[in-house]
Structure to design on (233 residues):
C-alpha cells in the first residue's frame, strides 16, 4: 500500500512539473522578428532605374511579442532618402497602401504626426524630400486607428499586423498560414506599396509617378530565445 501511494504522489508530482514546464515554454514562445527583404526592394529600384536616386529603409525593434501590448508592432518607421543632388522626390501617402500578412486587400496608409487630425477622411499632404536629404516618418494603416475618447485625437489602437487565429469561416490557406507561423514552420509576409513622384529636367512640374513595393518577413523565434540568459539584441 505505501509503495502504491508513493507511486501516486510521484505521478502527480511529475504531472505538475510537466504542466509548469509547458506553461513556461508557452510564455517564452510568442516572440518574432521582422525585416524588410532588401533584395526584393533592390529589384524594384533596378526595375525603375532608381538605384542611384532613391533609398528606402525601415527601423525595427530586435523582437516583438505577439501577446504583449507594449511590444507589438503598431507603426512602420520609414526613411526615404533622396540621393539626387538636383531634384526633389515627393511621397504621396494617400496613394500608398499596404496589406496584412495574408494579403487581404489594400489598406490605406496614414502618416502619424503629433496633433493628429480629427478626421481620417481628409486628404493627406504629400511630403517632399529635398535633393541630398532624407525624410523620416512613422506610418500606420487606417484600419487600426481610432479616436481617443469622444472628442480626442485619432491614435493607433491596434497591432499593425494582427497575428491572431483566423475565424472558423476563414479560407483554409489562411488557417494553414497562421498555423505554420505559430509552429515556426514558415514565415509570414506583408507588403507596402510606396507611391512616389519624381521630378527631373525631362518631366512636367508635377513629376512622373512610380510605385515601389517593399516586402517584409516575419519569423517566429524558437521558445528558447525568450529565456532570461539569451540576449535581447
Amino acid at each position: 500500500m505505501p509503495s502504491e501511494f508513493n507511486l501516486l504522489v510521484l505521478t502527480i508530482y511529475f504531472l505538475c512539473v510537466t504542466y509548469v514546464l509547458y506553461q513556461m515554454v508557452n510564455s517564452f514562445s510568442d516572440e518574432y522578428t521582422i525585416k524588410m527583404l532588401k533584395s526584393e526592394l533592390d529589384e524594384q529600384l533596378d526595375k525603375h532605374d532608381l538605384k542611384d536616386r532613391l533609398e528606402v529603409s525601415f527601423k525595427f525593434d530586435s523582437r516583438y511579442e505577439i501577446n504583449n501590448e507594449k511590444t507589438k508592432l503598431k507603426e512602420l518607421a520609414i526613411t526615404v532618402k533622396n540621393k539626387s543632388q538636383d531634384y526633389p522626390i515627393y511621397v504621396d501617402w494617400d496613394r500608398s497602401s499596404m496589406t496584412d500578412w495574408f494579403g487581404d486587400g489594400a489598406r490605406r496608409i496614414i502618416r502619424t504626426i503629433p496633433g493628429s487630425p480629427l478626421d481620417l477622411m481628409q486628404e493627406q499632404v504629400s511630403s517632399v524630400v529635398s535633393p541630398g536629404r532624407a525624410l523620416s516618418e512613422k506610418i500606420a494603416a487606417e484600419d487600426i486607428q481610432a479616436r481617443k475618447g469622444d472628442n480626442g485625437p485619432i491614435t493607433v489602437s491596434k497591432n499593425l499586423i494582427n497575428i491572431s487565429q483566423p475565424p472558423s469561416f476563414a479560407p483554409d490557406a489562411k488557417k494553414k498560414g497562421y498555423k505554420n507561423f505559430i509552429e515556426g514552420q514558415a514565415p509570414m509576409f506583408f507588403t507596402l506599396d510606396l507611391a512616389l513622384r519624381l521630378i527631373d529636367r525631362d518631366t512636367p512640374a508635377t513629376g512622373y509617378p512610380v510605385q515601389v513595393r517593399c516586402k517584409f518577413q516575419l519569423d517566429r523565434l524558437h521558445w528558447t530565445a525568450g529565456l532570461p540568459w539569451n540576449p535581447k539584441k
The chain has one domain: 31-226.
